[in-house]
Amino acid sequence: MCGIVGVVHRDLEQPVEPGVIRTMCRAIRHRGPDDEGLFVSGQVGLGMRRLSIIDLEGGRQPIANEDGSKVIVFNGEIYNYRELRADLARRRHRFRTASDTEAIVHLYEEAGPAAVERLRGMFAFAVWDSEHRSLCLARDRFGIKPLYYVVTPWGLAFASELKALVAGGLTGRELDWEALDAYFQLGYIPAPASPFRDVRKLPPGHWLMWRPSGELQIHQYWDLPRHAAAAPPEPERHVLEWLDESVAAHLISDVPVAAFLSGGLDSSAVVASMALAAQGADAVPQAFTARYFGSGAAAADETELARQLASRYGVRLNVVDITPDVRDTFEPIVRALDEPHADDSAIPTWALSQAVGSSHKVALTGIGGDELFAGYRRHLGLVAAERYARLPGALRRAAARVAQLLPDSAGSGLTIDRLKRFLRVGDAGTAERYLDLLSRADDAVRLPLYAPDLRGAIGGDSARNHFRRLHRDGPARDALAAALYFDYRTYLADDILALSDRLSMAHSLEIRVPFVDHELVEKVFPLPTRLKVGRWEHKHAPRRA
Question: Is 216 part of any domain?
């Protein structure tokens, strides 16, 4: 786990200054306080900051293949690296370290960018191929690890975080107002956009190939399964087995692994699997849960549920008391995130990461369970909206008009607002319906906020067009499959995972997400709707399991 940076020039006679790479690395030192590594050779410079988790002594980066023709900097963890190493060694590759990073560079030596298809884990990496004078960037299937890049007439620069590109003076920082318009509507900026016009995010499940000619190839190597699958016999037993296997894979580490435990279903399932996997080990598994103080804290307190789960499975529970103070947390959170995020989970994530990061380098979380098993209200909302849309148009329009006359009130305003949204989206397509169900500020609220000149320059359709493209490219099985696909390709990657990565890594803590594992997702995503929302119950299969 680390942070990576790099610069490559088109002109062979234009060397990269080592000082620029060091400045970029300094900006993301929090991602890897244990070590710094540089590779600077003529037109290319690569850098990394390391958080040592695998091969603590020998896994320093950058790492090259046997003849030095290919050099990698890597951020993430590869959970099947031991199997890959054994297979590569049988084919006479020579290894100098015991790290997962070296397995990738040897695999790239054989397969080129297609090497990513054999990796299980979370990753963002760059490989410089001096033989072909090409740079390959790649990002994991779900976007667990971040990767920003800038393409310019002189070449290309990349970094794990936006602040490194800013520190290196590699972006003009001109605001992308279409991207910010999407932010005001969604609460985050969906990839490939960023707050700046010249900076892009490499989308999840993609690799990028850059050549000195200026040629840029971006290729999608993975997507969620398109077709439905029949439910296996005893589906609940299979769900448990699949999750246990994923958690076991995510426990691979040369340092102790802790867990976040909220008391909810997803984190409880992960901690239970973790505890079972640790049976017979010397160390007692440790979990951390947040206890809130302030308005509304009692209703949100799941500490007792967490205690019950920890007691049942023999886990040591550490309770972290959180009393949010804006003066102490707001600016550090903004600095860590780099780009706008309107997600109030930032405060507990920051506080919990700070507490866990003081004693551990790695922690498991239950992130991704809602996207895998339909855990949000809007999932049921889209299924209901698709059915509602089959009613006669005149009836739907009349219902929408009546609903708009309902007054909002302090006690029931949220419920009435949801009813108004639900009835209003009846005539729209699936993408528009789902966007309206989750939108934080529709056109009527959002567009009047802009100054006249800016309003004229903004189309206002950035988020809508993004969802339309996703619906066109995604599975067409049913409304729930569409909703989950939207969340995987937008909300999970660009809100939840992005926020979790930045805020945990700000405290040098690696977050692992067993629910966001492609081998698990490829088994569960195609399962029938009834296993996920049976009788209008969220997460039907995991609850029964």
Answer: yes
Residue 1 pLDDT level (bands cut at 50, 70, 90): low
**What dihedral do alpha carbons 222, 252, 525, 366 form, nearest 10°?**
-120
Give me the catalytic one of 1, 2, 25, 27: 2
* Domains of the chain: total: 3
| Domain around 450 | 378-479
Q: What is the pLDDT of residue 412?
A: 45
Rg of the chain taking only CA atoms, in angstroms: 24
- Residue 509 one-letter amino acid: L
Residue 18 lies in a domain: yes
| 173, part of any domain | yes
Q: What is the pTM for the complete model shown?
A: 0.93
pLDDT at 197 over 70: yes
Residue 466 lies in a domain: yes
Do residues 308 and 357 both lie within one domain? yes
81-117 tens-digit pLDDT: 999 999 999 999 999 989 999 999 999 999 999 999 9
Token code pair at residue 63: 């790492």
- Closest by CA to 271, choosing from 320, 303, 312, is 312
DSSP code string of 432-465: HHHHHHH-SS-HHHHGGGS-HHHHHH--S-HHHH
Say whether 25 is catalytic: no
pLDDT at 411 over 50: no
